[in-house]
Amino acid sequence: MIRLLTGVAALALPAAAMAQGEDWGSDPVPAGLHNPKEIVVRGGLLWRATGDDVQSSAIIEDVPRGLGARIENRLRDEAGIVQFRRSDGRSAHPTSQGATLRGLGGNASSRALVTLDGVPQADPFGGWVAWSAYDAINLGGIAITRGGGGGADGPGALAGTIALYSTLTDGAEASFAYGNRDSWDASASVGRRIGNGQVAIDGRYGRGDGFIPVTKGQRGTVDRAAPYEQGGLGLRMRFDAGDDSRIEASLRGFSDRRDRGTDFTDSKVDGVDASLRFVHDPLGETQWLALAYVQVRDFESGFASVAAGRNSIAPVLFQRVPATGVGARIEVRPVIGATNRPRLGVDWRRTVGRTEEDFFFSGVVPGRHRIAGGSSDTVGAFAEWTSGDFNDGFLWTLSGRVDRWWLGEGYRLERNIAGPVITDLRFAVRQGWEGSGRAGVRWTSDAFSLRAAAYRGWRLPTLNELYRPFRVGAEVTTANAALKPERLWGGEVGADWDNGDTKLSATLFANHLTNAIANVTLAPNLNQRQNLDAIDSKGVEVSAEQRIGPATLRATYAFTDAKVDASGAALALDGRRPAQIAKHGGSVSLRSNTGGPFGGFATLRYVGKQNEDDLGLLALDDALTLDAGLSWRFSDAVSIEARGENLFDELVPAAISSSGIVERATPRTLWVGARMSF
Length: 678
What we know:
The chain is an all-beta fold and about 675 residues long. The chain has 2 helices and 41 strands.
């Protein structure tokens, strides 16, 4: 049975995220908020801030858990949301799963801000996202805001915000499924009301023998199936603390074990998150909240070198990355006028981490050791004002944010394990100021709306980008402690139609990302992380949704024209499309939306051709996949389900090496199982 990390007893966050400006939990809705789409989360509702409606946005209501379902794959149904690799969290390397939108790629660090109940989720050291950390969580919905500048979200929301919202189970529910390649998936949640509060426990365990990542015809004797084993437990509580006040707390741990389909490529991620929030939200009076959280991550991974012909293999690197993220936030919403509340707040986030690496192996014995890392801090203050009537007429919003950032003394030490120090570097403390904000307007008449927004955002380089060199095969990428923060200017205009049964949306956008951090080729097999002059990205996003009796048909499409603006050492990249960014992407899905005994879904996804490398010398072909499932609830408490992933068994290229070896994403996988609810 999988080992779960059980340390860290820190208090921290909520069951409803404040970063999006959602309802703090009071009922009726606090002034200044609206409910454009209600999401039933077993007794609760997911609310969004009115200011976000000047930008392209979407809400995912149906976030199934268990029976092989994956959150990162559900997000792929919204065109334009991409992860650095096309593989999901069962087979991708954990460091390759950063999320972005609107063509703002370049490396595996997230340029979209991912939050869970208001807490930033990017790895404190590397900026990637451990999607398996959310397998055990009972999610009530996901709110997606495309485009940056939302000051209340905090720094890092260059491409947009992906806000995950958990929900407290009232009763008990469980699922169990079996799939191809001896795969198992079990989940359970139990919760109950205690006095004036509620407590819930969630858990999930999954494992599988995995598939061989290297495509057929290129495999050698070193290639084998890549197994995975993942699980997690979470405890969430909510209790009243006097009139109009309450305390919300969360503690969860997760563990992830997988490898890359050869010896010496095992990886593991252990994590513990905790949070505490105090909310005071009387109707008609000043509302405020205080939030604190902590993230603890421990990541380990091995890397190997495979000989030509793939008939022998040797270890080249073993890496361990302990990292911690802590933060706090205070927000106040005073009453000004009858309907509008300004949002005023301050927040702080600190990350500390290091990489500990053994390399220069002789056989299986390492000859050299490296340690590299540092710390970063951001302290910010924000203000947002939204005025007008969401239902009809004009609504406008204006927000601003100022951040002070610090990079503590970084370091990199290399020494021969049986000998002297080779490198002992210290990198100077740096600090600076950054501003961000958003201005937007929306005009609504009956079912039709027009909107426009302009925004500025920024992102601090991760500790990984600043201090850690790495190697993949023969490709060496050096770190760059002089990297500058990324800065984005962007804007969009759009139109929406929503009459209840029919929903249409179209958005034109343009983004200019300066100091974009990318892995730049300097010479054959030698790269360095550098700030590019800019990435310019423009395009169109469209979506259409139609309710058809007991089902809902939804289609999304994104066209992204992204180009690099580069000079100097990166001149060869000028005019090229960023790595891992496709021009075209889309999906069509049909999902049942009634509570009848029969249900199901079918989702067709398309991802266009994209470059593997910065120079565009290696290309990943496009792919069309189909996922589908059927369910039958034969009693109030029990239903059975069958679902399939990649039913056409389409070859979905996820990576290609400089020698032309292609790695694939998940092949056809079939699941059958049952759900129970009491």
